[in-house]
Amino acid sequence: MTAQADGIDVLVLGGAGVDTVVPVPGLPLPYADSYMIEAGIRTRAGQTGDFVALGLAALGLRTHHLDLLGDDPEGDLVRALHREHGIALTALPQPAGTKRAVNLVAPDGRRLSLYDTSRARPGDRFPKAALRELAAAGRHVHVTITQPCAHALPVLRETGVPLSTDLHDWDGVNPYHEPFAYAADVVFLSAAALTDPVPTMRRIAERGRAAAVVATAGAEGAYLLAGGELTRVPAAAPPAPVVDSNGAGDAFAAAFLYGRLTGEPPERCARFGAIAGAYACTVPATRVAAIGREDLLRAAGPGR
User: Fold this and answer.
1) Using the 8-state DSSP alphabet, how is residue 176 labeled?
2) Which helix H or strand E contains 8, and what residues bound it?
3) Does the CA dihedral 99-45-49-173 come out positive or negative?
4) What is the pTM for the complete model shown?
5) Which of 112, 173, 190, 271 is most deeply packed, by most CB within 10 A?
């Protein structure tokens, strides 16, 4: 367990785990007794918190990741990923094991994720003292929507440190997501489950404390609500063929937060996010990589 709290730009809370990546001929996958996977089935570290931490670190932000990990091969993969990329990690023991998922990935980059929910317990919590110490040492906390993070929200709000969260494919109805939506200063979500994301975005801003709400819409770009003004953010052109959409939203969030923490206006933060998300779609599912600061700024061009 690493617990160095000095000099943190962003504390990433939760969302560490591994994915087993299965290339499939298409989605939905027609029923068959078996499929031969010539490209190979591989397991690698990298779930939402890992990807956000990786994206932040690649952009030069001092990043610390806090989560529960098992003493198992999957946990070893997560620890190795953080070591290789120079990301500080506080790994609390998780007797139920490290979180894992299976991703079915189609040739067009679409995916279907199957999450193993057995590797969590109802009583999972982050120790309040460690949480306060790490949060207070940082400039910002990004909170994933795992169950221990839900219980951490009151403690985080007490510290006064700005928060962000990603609601992923929230349908705007499931009450589980609401505490995250209304506690964060920056809220990300996918428009995938919303016919029109704008009413949900406005409700988040009105009922919560969010200064910025972003709904990503894949190839259609994103919606940005900041200061009461709604802006359509065009999608960025991927720098290479699209091979996997997994992690694109996490990359968007990381680059947006980089812009925010370096004093950029919301529109440019969203431009950064679109560029980083497009880059992430060109990274094969079996690899883990994020756009660097120099490439991001070059692609974004000069600010106004």
Assistant:
1) G
2) strand 8-13
3) negative
4) 0.94
5) 271
